[in-house]
Specification:
This protein has about 500 residues and is α+β, with helices and mostly antiparallel strands. It folds into two domains: about 25-55 and about 155-310 and about 395-509, Outer membrane efflux proteins (OEP) (Up-down Bundle); about 70-105 and about 110-150 and about 325-375, no CATH class. The chain has 13 helices and eleven strands.
């Protein structure tokens, strides 16, 4: 008796609390919520910077093959006291001007090619000079090429390949985060849908209890029922009002969780879901699901990229264990012109010409020169390179094991999601039948109560059973909808199912 009175008092207190101050309502569909999450989620915005960083590092690694161009200029003037009678002057004043252009190119197979064009002019007041002024030009090609260690595309392009793999891995990581974010958003959205419908069920259950309370009060007044029936009904009303309050609190918690994902915690509107869970049967074929998962899942792609990088490392460090054999080759042509003198008097018809004549002779290859050489360097104990190779091989083995583990995980997850999908589909049907039967039993019991063949206690029990059956049916629909969402996450097809162009999304971001 005391317990019933306490519950009646609690019901009046809850009634005094009343609803919180109403806020503007914003109705959102699931697709609208997902689009908003992709635009506003802070974690995703932070992750989106990583592919751009990886792209910049890739451009930096490619810069090694960009040719470098150089220009040099130097002018020298000297004044030197002369102690020789050969020069014919007391103070010798030589002057020189030189300038040149150079081009350096890294070769794909490991070597480097240098092209240099040098020009100079020399003049002096000394009489002991055959050509004054003297113009000199030289065009030179120099090749330096490793033949063993550091030879080949792997040695020269390793940093570029690894940078490209890192960029692809960062894109896969971003795609995985987008998939995870979409699933989190769907989960938060359907939980909010459940909380709203749960409140609706609780409020209807409360209204049924209130209707029965009024009916009992009327029957007590006319002497048909005992006052004890009123207390029983009042206690049930108080209990169901407590359930309504809890349901409202659950709405606030689920809504705040969705706001956190959408980064809209400070927005004044109350989010109300516009979509309702529907049962959409989906056929599940294990082989088809597994094939899609292995082809599309970002985590599989990341492991495979890591495996490719480890293969490149093994090939590179194997090359580093070879002796260092260097080929050097040089080819150059020269040109000379100027004014021939004898005792300071010009001699016509010999050499002659200016800077352009010296440059012309160099380009015509009138005076060809070349050199060719090999240099071999063999370390006594190549411990460092062998240790690097051993570590690279161990890293490769780890990557292979990681790939096998990831594929095994995918295999298990595909099996589990198919079982979940089939189980939740059966639960939807089972809870629907249970709810229909509970509704029929309640209707029959209410008719029996009207003719005095049942009791208030039995009707209240059937009301509660009906409410629980409706909540169970709703929960099964939500679980099935989440199972469909997990199918996309497990298979890596979430973006396709929501028609999201990842490349376009990344560009917009």
């Amino acid at each position: 008796m005391k317990k019933m009175i306490a519950m009646v008092v609690l019901a009046h207190l809850l009634a005094l609390l009343g609803p919180a101050q109403e806020r503007p309502v914003k109705s959102l569909s699931l697709e609208e919520v997902i689009n908003q999450a992709l635009k506003n989620n802070l974690d995703l915005q932070i992750e989106m910077a990583n592919p751009e960083i990886a792209k910049a590092l890739l451009r930096k690694s490619r810069a090694v093959f960009i040719p470098s161009v150089g220009f040099s200029f130097r002018k020298t003037s000297q004044t030197t006291p002369n102690a020789s009678i050969v020069t014919g002057v007391d103070v010798e004043k030589p002057e020189s001007v030189s300038y040149g252009f150079s081009l350096k190119q890294q070769l794909p197979i490991g070597g480097s090619l240098d092209v240099a064009l040098q020009n100079s002019r020399y003049s002096t007041n000394s009489l002991d000079v055959y050509i004054n002024p003297r113009y000199f030009s030289q065009l030179q090609f120099t090749l330096s090429q490793p033949l063993l260690k550091n030879f080949g595309l792997t040695a020269t392009r390793r940093s570029i390949i690894l940078a490209r793999h890192n960029q692809d891995k960062s894109l896969a990581t971003l795609r995985q985060q987008v998939i995870d974010l979409i699933y989190q958003t769907e989960e938060a959205y359907w939980n909010l849908v459940y909380s709203h419908q749960n409140l609706e069920v609780k409020e209807k259950s409360l209204q049924l209890a209130k209707d029965l309370l009024k009916q009992n009060e009327t029957q007590v007044r006319v002497g048909v029922s005992a006052p004890m029936d009123i207390l029983t009904a009042q206690a049930e009303v108080a209990a169901r009002e407590g359930e309504v309050l809890q349901a409202r609190s659950q709405i606030q918690a689920y809504e705040e969780n969705l706001r956190r994902i959408l980064n809209t915690s400070q927005a004044p509107e109350t989010i109300v879901p516009a979509d309702q869970p529907l049962f959409r049967p989906r056929q599940a074929d294990f082989n088809e699901f597994l094939e899609k998962a292995l082809a599309k899942r970002p985590d599989i792609e990341q492991v495979r990229l890591d495996l490719k990088s480890r293969n490149i490392d093994v090939r590179y460090y194997r090359n580093q264990t070879l002796p260092d054999l260097q080929l050097t080759a040089s080819y150059y042509t020269q040109g000379l012109s100027g004014m021939p003198l004898k005792n300071g008097i010009p001699i016509p018809g010999v050499v002659g010409g200016g800077m352009s004549d010296a440059l012309r002779d160099a380009l015509k290859r009138l005076y060809e020169n070349y050199s060719l050489g090999l240099q071999l360097s063999v370390p006594v104990v190549n411990a460092s390179a062998r240790a690097d190779l051993a570590q690279a091989r161990l890293n490769l083995e780890q990557s292979l094991l990681t790939l096998k583990k990831t594929e095994s995980t995918v295999y298990s997850e595909v099996k589990q999601i198919i079982m979940d999908l089939e189980t939740n589909a059966k639960l939807v049907e089972a809870t629907r039948i249970s709810r229909e039967l509970a509704e029929q039993k309640l209707a029959a019991e209410q008719k029996k109560l009207a003719v005095g063949l049942s009791t208030n206690y039995q009707v209240l029990q059937y009301q509660r059973d009906f409410a629980n059956a409706r909540i169970a049916e709703l929960k099964s629909l939500i679980d099935y909808s989440l199972s469909l969402s997990r199918v996309g996450k497990v298979l890596g097809t979430t973006l396709d199912e929501h028609n999201i162009d990842f490349a376009g999304f990344q560009a917009e971001g």
